[in-house]
Amino acid sequence: MAEEEVVLEEEMYNKEALDELLLSGDIDQFREEFLELHTYDQGEYFTESSDEYRDKIYHYLSPKEVAEFMETTEMEDDEYDHIFEEMDARYASSMFEEMSLDNAVDILKMLPKTKIASLLLLMDKETAGEIKALLHYEEDTAGGLMTTEFISVSSLSTVREAMIQLKEQAPQAETIYYIFVLNEKKQLVGVISLRDLIVAENDEYIEDIMNERVISVNVADDQEDVANIMKDYDFLAIPVVDYQNHLLGIITIDDILDVIDEEASEDYSKLAGVSDIDSTDDSMFATARKRLPWLMALTVMGMITASILGQFEDTLSKVALLAAFIPLIGGMAGNSGTQSLAVVVRGISTGEIDEQSKFKLALREAGSGFITGLSCSVMLFIIICVLYKTPVLGLIVCFSLTIAMTVATLAGAMVPLVMHRLKIDPAVASGPFISTTNDIISMLIYFGLATTFMSYLT
Amino acid sequence: MAEEEVVLEEEMYNKEALDELLLSGDIDQFREEFLELHTYDQGEYFTESSDEYRDKIYHYLSPKEVAEFMETTEMEDDEYDHIFEEMDARYASSMFEEMSLDNAVDILKMLPKTKIASLLLLMDKETAGEIKALLHYEEDTAGGLMTTEFISVSSLSTVREAMIQLKEQAPQAETIYYIFVLNEKKQLVGVISLRDLIVAENDEYIEDIMNERVISVNVADDQEDVANIMKDYDFLAIPVVDYQNHLLGIITIDDILDVIDEEASEDYSKLAGVSDIDSTDDSMFATARKRLPWLMALTVMGMITASILGQFEDTLSKVALLAAFIPLIGGMAGNSGTQSLAVVVRGISTGEIDEQSKFKLALREAGSGFITGLSCSVMLFIIICVLYKTPVLGLIVCFSLTIAMTVATLAGAMVPLVMHRLKIDPAVASGPFISTTNDIISMLIYFGLATTFMSYLT
Fold this sequence. Notes:
2 copies of one chain form a homodimer. By secondary structure, chain A is mainly alpha-helical. Chain A has helices at residues 2-9, 15-24, 27-36, 39-48, 51-60, 63-70, 77-86, 89-98, 101-108, 113-122, 125-135, 142-145, 159-169, 194-199, 206-209, 223-233, 253-272, 284-311, 313-318, 326-349, 357-388, 391-421, 431-452, 454-457, and strands spanning 152-154, 178-182, 188-193, 217-218, 237-241, 247-252.
């Protein structure tokens, strides 16, 4: 174990050695060491280097070599800004020309509009045109994910002809493992895997061996739907078509991995009420600044709860022990509400929840809220009777708890369902929001009941 | 849009038509329709069918045909139990023989031990042996994910020889897109992609064109680590080796997609305090039963908060308005604690947090808790002064809020970090647990302060 662990946890390259080669100006040695690394590690080294070192890197490597690691390296928006301000514009535009189109577009989208325009001007016309076309698609759609560098053959060609075309197109193609089959109108009519092509006889016609049941996505489809399809069908790439079934591009599995990760992080962030969960290297102040708007809004909501409770000052001053159960009732409503919120939000993301089952699901959540609320209440009633010997208080607390948990689970399920229905992104229905709303509801129930049955308490 | 949407949201097959063909006994027509479907859709049809229909499916299809969709279909453990009780054991064992080894093992692992043993007895010795070997690996490790059906060539062969071997091994291989290169001791020394092989000259030696910097994982590595590596490096498959670098198997991207999904769901479930988030089709009672243990534990914890508050009955009965701010202070401590818990848990999962940055991270969280706490408190103090004209109460509430939020963020970050350090799964550090713990801490701070400064309040 030990040996392998070390390899995984430590860096796969020697930063100091590379730094030294850069400084000493030993171009050949630096190139040899650096280019032997996997592009991911090259990117890691690059992002960890200072401007001064990066400037040397541009001198030591060709735009093509920089492009290779740049397209697999993930950085923050402002880091890209900074890098492309430093980098010579001509060097940068040749670098973009060397990238996969989809990756070039992803990076360009993070730069200021004027910068994009000036870089496009310096590129060769064909690439600039293709990039411009891709820049139009919205980021979270199939169009925003796809690349136009796919391999396609005519349905009327033979296996031999297809193999020749494949070898020609391979160097530019994003994947060579699926070959898409087009009719004379350039419409997608089939797909054939490289595997099938390799085991087929040379004289067979593509038409006869292709898979006609090709599953495609529309260019306007949401990236989350695309990810779910690719996951279900275990595709390595999926074709993207327009409304007339013309093949526009393909989306490959590596981009989908990022989407799945991104969407999971998004759901997770919402539940926690954090806007940007994956930035563990922000400073204390940056972190505080990001979380503050949310927390201030929640403070104001908390003030609403406080005002409501303030109305019950009379009740509270008569039976002070009532206050002792405020955190319990509010907390349990919050907990069960968050549980049902989480199940529903996740169900919507993974596409498990469809139109028909929505009503049933809300009902199930409310039902399970009632059952768990009742069970917890029975247990709590016994504890309160034993500890405080106040069965009337116990009844009020437990009755409130049951109702609060039922309402909270129903609210937890309904809010994202209704938002999804109204095509609103359920971002507002985050965990803290639901918890605080449930605080308000549960306090109204609790003190409403307590005030009504006041005479039995005192 | 409309047309494509329909295809995506509706089923890709006609269940009624297939049902009818099954019932009418039209074997040829059924086979034609069914086998034209993608295996994912075949599996969907199969899982939605009743026992009676499934029995017919076994008669109409060969074990190989059933194997093809069975290995890509995900079902619950008890569904597998049920299916393999119904299915003829000989049919079942031939079916497992036809599957990819890793998928066969995944399904077999869900069956009772005696059933596995009896099925293995019916299989051919070679397959049974390979399956037995794979059954030994723990589920969440690289060994548990890998398949032994990979393509390997000797480093001394030529491209031509390699292509011949590839064609031979292709039908059984899980992926043909990476060919692993072994030395005479069967140790992994390189990798070459099919793409590189196709563009290489026939007479070149594999040794000369292979990539020697092959990145592998150890058979005992955690599946989450494997997933992070594959995501970072954009691999379609990664080799799995033992401690002497012998190639044992490969893990393909489709299995990793499931792991990423599974791990994200796991983190998400923990944050929400739900054990099994992806089961939206459970009944009301099943849902309640799953959530009840958690909720009961939290009720007991809530009872601890209530007892602590009970100790402050005197303070409460003197200044009833103090109770009004209980939900606010407890809730905000819960919210900010959950935020920092979420960031840290996610950071651990994605491997972004390493040993060195842990202390810095805890410090950052506490600092950002203090800054946000102070900011919210200043705002809250103004509101309280305006609404209630009680600056002393305002000071106590706001002072408590600042401390509570600082402690809560620190606790939210420390709990998972310490657990990770102690190699305990941070499952106990779920969102509701942290919220309830923070409730207790914040109430102690709030009422401790209020009691101390009682004289200024009344």
